[in-house]
Each structure stands twice: as C-alpha cells, then as structure tokens.
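ok trying again, last paste got cut off:
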Amino acid sequence: MRSPANIPVWVRWLTGISAALAAFLAMDTLRMFADAPLLDFIITIENHYYYALLALLLPPVYLLFPPWRNATRYWYDILLALAAFGAAAYFFINAETMLDYGWEFMAPTTAVWVSYLLWALVLEAVRRCGGMTLFVLVLLFSVYPILADSMPGPISGMSSSPAETASYHIMSIESVLGLPFRAFATLVIGFLIFGVALQHTGGGRFFINLAFALFGHVRGGAAKVSIVSSGLMGSMSGSVITNVLTTGQMTIPAMKRSGMDKEYAGGVEACASTGGVLLPPIMGSTAFVMATFLNVPYTTVALAAVIPAALYFFGLFVQIDAYAARKDLKGTPREELPSLKDTMKEGWFYLAAFGVLIFLLVFLQREAVAPFIATGMLLVLNQVTKAQRWDMKKAGEFLYASGRLLAELLAIMAGVGLIVGALSMSGLSGTLVNDLLYLAGDSIWLLLLMGALTAFILGIGMTVTAAYIFLAIVLAPALSQAGLDPMSVHLFILYWGMLSFITPPVALGAFAAASVAGASALATGFKAMRLGSVIYFIPFFFVLDPALILAGTLWEIVSATVAAAVGVLFIAASLQGYLLGMGFLDRGGWAGLTGRFLLGVGGGLIALPGLEAVGFQVNDTQLLVTGVTGSVLGILLSKRLLKPVLS
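nice, full thing came through this time. structure:
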C-alpha cells in the first residue's frame, strides 16, 4: 500500500475534494440544508446519487492503492481513474433513461460495453482494497450467472448471457448498487467521517488520558486503560489493525513499563481493539449494513449488541485483574497520571459530541443525520479551543484521510454487491439455503457450528464487513428459517467473523500488536486467544437466548445477563488461576488442574441457556444446577478446601 509520504500532493487534494463533495451530496440528499435538496435539479432519482458517489470515490482507489506492493508508477492508474469517472458519469447521465426503459434487462450496445468496463474496474478496485481472497471470491461469483446452468446440481442456477449479466450487475439496484452499497451511501458515510474527525482532533489521546485518569492507579491499570481507550476508538474506526497501530503505540509501552510481559501487552491491545468493533454506539461500518439487511433502525442493532459487548469486556477486565494480582503489578502513582479535572477541561467537547450523537440516535431516531451533526459540532468546538485547533494543513489531512477511507470502503461494498447480484440473478441464494438445511439434517446445532466455522474461515481472508455480508445472504436465512432469532443470528455471524483477528495461526490483530510490542507474533496470538477466550462462547449464549440481546421481558434479560456474567467470571478465573473475591486458585498437581477445569466447565454451563432450541431436552435449571455444582467443587479443589479421594 502506498504510504502517505509517497502520495503526490495533487492526488491528496483530489481525494480530499472527492470526500468533501461526497459528504455534501450525502447531506443534501438527507435534506440537511433545506426542505428540498439543493441539487434536486440534478439528483432527481436515487440512482443519480449512487452513480455520483461512484464517480467521486471510485477513481481515487486507483491513485491511492497500488496494483502491487511497492509500485510507484502512475500513468496506468491515472487511465483507470479516468475510465472509472467516465463510466460512472455515463450511467449518471443516463440514470433516468435506464429506469424508464429497463436497461438492466435490455440495454443498448453502448451501455453494455460501458457496463463491462465498470464491472472490470470494480473488480480491480476490490483486488487493490480487499486483497486477493475477496477478489477471487467476487470474481467467481460475479461471472457465475453466465455459467449457472452448467454447474453441478447443488450449485446449479438460471443462466444469463454475458451482456445480460453485465447489464444487471451495473444497472440494476441488486448488484453493484445493491444493499451493501445503499447502506454505505445512506448510513455509513457520516459515521466514517465522524470517526476520522475524532482521531484528527485528538480524540484518541483524550480517551487514553481519560482512561488513565480513571483507571491508571488501580492494579493492572495500564492494561485496563488499553481496554477502555482502544475499545472506544475501535468502535469509531471499525478497523482492528488500524486501531492497534494507533492507540497501541501509546498503550503497549505503558503496559510494558508497568511490568507486563510484552506478549501479554500485545495480546491485551489486540483483544481490546477487536472488541471495539463489537462495541456500540458505532461498531464500525458492519452494524449499519446489518440494520439494512434486517430492515430495522440502526439503534436496534446497537442496543442488541450492548450486553454481549459488555460481557466480552467484563471477561477482559477480570482476566487482566487476575494477571495483575498474580504478578503483583501496582497501579501508576496518581501524581504521575493525568488529572481528571484537567483532562475533562481540555477534552470535554469530545464527550459533548458523543452525547449529541447518542441523543440523536436513541431519542430522536435520526441515525442518518446524527453523525454529520455530531461531526459539525466537534469541528466547531475544536476550532474554539487552542490545544487541537486546525490550520489549513490539518484540515487538508482530515479531508484526505476521510476520502481515503470512503474510497476504500466504497470499493469493497461495490465488490461485495456483485456477489449479492449474482446470487439474486441466478436464484442461487434460495437454493443454498435449502442445501444448507438439507446438509444439517434439520439440526440447528450442526448448522450453528457450520456457520461459526465458515464465518471464521471467511474472516481470515476478507474484511469483516465483506465476510458478514456474504454470510448474511447465504447462511443467515437458513438459521432464521430453523427458528432462531434473526438479530441474534446476524450478530452471531459478526462475532465469529471477528475471531480470526485474535486466533492463531492468522491473528492479524495480534500480529500487528506484536510488531508494536517487539514481541513474538505467535506467542502474542496465543496470549490474545486466551485473554479473549470468552468471545468464543458469547455468540452461542445469545443465539440460544435472545434475552441477551434485549429480546425478552425485564426478568428474562436480567436473569440471563447475571447468569452469563457469573459464567464469564468463572471461565476467566479458571484460565488465570485467580477468582475475584476469593484470591488465588493455586493448588498444584492433578487436584488443582481438575478444580480449575471443573470451574471453567461449570462457568460455561451456568452461562449456557437451555438447549431446547437446538433439539436437546436440557433446560436452564438443569444446566444451572450442574454448573453451580461443578463450579463449587472446582473452587474447593483449587483452594485446598477439599481433600481429593485419590492421593
């Protein structure tokens, strides 16, 4: 990837201008400037807006992302950028005619050839931004309709000619302009810009200072600071690796100075940054696509994600506290920490912008306009204060960073849209759902395990958003038809798609953290896997009991949350050999190991909901009683309070 230092000034300016125009188009389409859009004499239908975004944000992809590593030449990139602009402009000009005459089914020859061109350009953009795995998947699926009727039985579908396929991909609202792209155009743009604004106004440093002021003095304080600050910033950026390489530059050295092993420090940062993408209020970009898939307000998705995210971060906190107790790691003296009063005085406007964002999201239900208003407020207040005030150079850097992020995500969304369009055009999506149900033999449990494994594998080579969209089309309908709650199914897929960031041998988030910490990549990956272990169980908890995603009565929600929290506490204690409130589980030999094993298994059974939904006649009470019994025995054995029968 070209580093910012290698990007010519004119490309940076072009990218920044494209971002500014895209933001203006999005806000004008949302009627933020007047009762009617200011550009309603040009943008007369939705497709005008979508093709305008393509014309603005697709060309910078070829100028910012090289065709191969360390490529520096630009002449062919300029040609591709001009071709992308010209193709998108052609469809922008003809958008109304396309709609009136149904060009997606029968287009004139010129439109077909321009469709071929834009199809190829989108594929190349996906290759540059999303990597080879996503590119190959998108390529195979996008050409599938041409060969559908010659495929073997399970993956056979309705065939189309190359011209019909190209026309449908580019000129219908089911493929390139399909659901992923529309979610990007209507919801995601504003939140991405808000996240960039937060970083460029110093929000990352503010959250780190705030976390140090609140938690730096307690044992393991530096690691707890990492959880809070990286979790918050990860929610803004939506990128695990980016978050590790930014906030990790400050949190990892602080953890090492406090006495933590470098592999452990890297693992903590990787887990915190991974959890940030699952943390409301923003959750990266995937949650907005999820809201569009489920046809619910974004706030519904964000609220559903609160308890699972809280359980994950609770598990991290408990494990770090146990590690600090075992290593006797003291907190930083208060006099060496930032003052809470001074920190709030310098950065209060970050919390004010957050407050406005949450108020608009939750209470006024204005999720489309909320990030733009919050960003505007943040930028105005930033200019009022002296510490982070921008000059023209910093403003230009903000626009460039926004444009780069928007261009990258647009390319991925358009590419994944090709998969959606191919499945829709060939009728394969319904066939795959039925085939999955047939393979699982009506076993929901087997279907869940298949889904978890598939999501994990796809998450290795694709972005989280791309992996989620693919599985939301192919797998989620099968799980929903099997009787599981649709919201819990979609969150289940999202969680398992994230796991590759902390699971060796891939563990990209952990490997990035290891590079910052100067630690062994594989050792850091295993530390992260152990620290974040509860994330492997939490998706099964909420998919079996939707009360954990707020789908139930108050009593059901409270009881399920308490049981899950106790279970997470016991699982973390078994892994770290330390139980909060009871101290070290330090008995040696087989008795101690057996005790910790029983405690971990018992915790899992306490948290696990009844299994009736997946075909096993085991209810909540049976699991709770068994889990409590096993946990008590485990504690007694581990604490030398119970003499083993065998010596």
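cool. The longest strand covers residues 578-579. Residues 22 and 298 are 22 Å apart (CA to CA).
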